[in-house]
Amino acid sequence: MARFTAAQLEAARDRLVPDVIADGLHVLFCGINPGLMTAATGHHFARPGNRFWPVLHLSGFTPRLMKPSEQGELPSYGLGITNVVARATARADELSAEEYREGGRLLTAKVARLRPRWLAVVGVTAYRAAFDDRKAQVGPQERVIGGTRVWVLPNPSGLNAHWTAATMAEEFARLRVTAETQERAEG
User: Fold this and answer.
1) What's the CATH code of the domain at 56?
2) Start and end of every Uracil-DNA glycosylase-like domain (predicted)?
3) pTM of structure
4) Among the options 43, 44, 83, 155, which is catalytic?
5) How many independent structural domains does the chain possess?
6) Is 155 a catalytic residue?
7) Which helix (H) or strand (E) holds 113?
8) Is residue 3 part of a domain?
């Protein structure tokens, strides 16, 4: 991965990163918002300490550990990536409550249009803010968007010390198994 100077990372602030999406995905993962490394590279979850890619593999969603630069392969596995808020910041706490609410509205419209089987929001705090659901916990939610079920996953940021890669992978795997079971049942 390329190394960036502080000035190069700062220049990526507010930059938009294209979604990795397609119609009818099995799972659409939804981050909080792009970090500066993601914005600088154009690849989701690009910061070296972020555990998204290792956890995606450990949980069985991908057959091998993928690099952020390989994100374009995700739709071939029925997976995609978007964000609650599109603009890049150094930290999620730079986002306003209104940005989260507007992000929730835009995300709802995107999910209704793309119709993934599952929307997986990575970060319970972001989910609570975007959907005004202060009591939400990690796991499946009662909320449904059209025919899309919603699951909240732990935030894979290296700053989220409450979850290890192993415990995070267990929660991601719970979603994977549930999604696969649902798909077989619908046949």
Assistant:
1) 3.40.470.10
2) 18-179
3) 0.95
4) 44
5) 1
6) no
7) helix 97-114
8) no
